[in-house]
Amino acid sequence: MTVRRRNLVLGATAAIAAAGSFPAPAISQGIKEFRLVTSYPRELPGSGASPERLAQSIAAMSDGRLKVTVYPAGTLVRAFEVFDAVSAGAADMYFADEKYFQEKAPGLNFFSTVPYGLTTYEFHAWVLFGGGQAMWDEVVAQFNIKSLMAQNTGVQMGGWFNKEVSSPDDFKGLRYRMPELGAEVLRRMGATVVLIPAGDIANALRSGAIDAAEYVGASTSPVSTARSVSTRRCGTGSRLPSMH
């Protein structure tokens, strides 16, 4: 989860600085409203449902004084536009995977996942106790953003395939949905890598626009749908040991 620095909900100074952006009736009632944009469709288990739970938790802990309205991918901005929306002030918070924005700063990959990188527990220990949060703050400060951990999906599956893959040579020419840095691994193996939002994976597999895709695990709806249109699944993916 990421919030604009001036709208961080953890102090009076931030609330005062942001007061001008709230509707007058809401301010007079002591209510502060925030727009949370996400990179996922609302119906997606996990990443789609978690922003709603977060909004409910914030409302409950603040006795209703902080109201967060969730905008799933494509409602206020498109899936991969959430970083720019928060940085520019068009939204107040985003819920997404930092590796989607690695073209802004390559270091963002390390606050999501890297091939053969940290496991879930290792990542949490690094961010909370090993100086990781300070480094994260330094990377995103230039964009007027403050990033915080919100969820972790754990190790991801290697992918769902419409073609049999039984050797490294089978990756050559394969049209594969994969984010960075895992995408770079596949490129060097000869695959053609594309990045599409989670909500579009199943249709892309069904139409033949892609031959394979990775996305978390079998419990998530795009992949569950993908299983009905793809014929093969690869187990644990080394390119995504965990996702944050």
Task: Please describe what this structure looks like.
This protein is α/β, with parallel strands linked by helices and 244 residues long. It folds into two domains: 2-147, Bacterial extracellular solute-binding protein, family 7 (D-Maltodextrin-Binding Protein, domain 2), CATH 3.40.190.170; 157-236, D-Maltodextrin-Binding Protein, domain 2 (3-Layer(aba) Sandwich). It is built from nine helices and ten strands. The chain has helices at residues 12-18, 24-28, 50-61, 82-88, 120-129, 132-141, 182-188, 201-207, 221-229, and strands at residues 2-4, 32-38, 66-71, 93-95, 145-147, 157-161, 175-177, 192-194, 212-213, 232-236. It has a five-stranded mixed β-sheet with strand order 3-2-4-1-5, sandwiched between helices. Strands 8-7-9-6-10 form a five-stranded mixed β-sheet, with helices on both faces. Helix 7 links the parallel strand 7 (175-177) and strand 8 (192-194). The protein starts with a strand and ends in an 8-residue tail after the last strand.
Going by CATH, the architecture of the largest domain would be 3-Layer(aba) Sandwich
Tell me the distance between the termini: 9 Å
CATH third-tier fold name of the largest domain: D-Maltodextrin-Binding Protein, domain 2
Total domains, how many? 2
CATH class of the largest domain: Alpha Beta
Helix content: 25-40%
Instruction: Assess the beta-strand content as a share of residues.
Output: 15-25%
Strand order of the largest sheet: 3-2-4-1-5
Q: Judging from the principal axes of the Cα atoms, what is the shape?
A: globular
Write the element-wise H/E pattern from the N-terminal end onward.
Answer: EHHEHEHEHHEEEHEHEHE
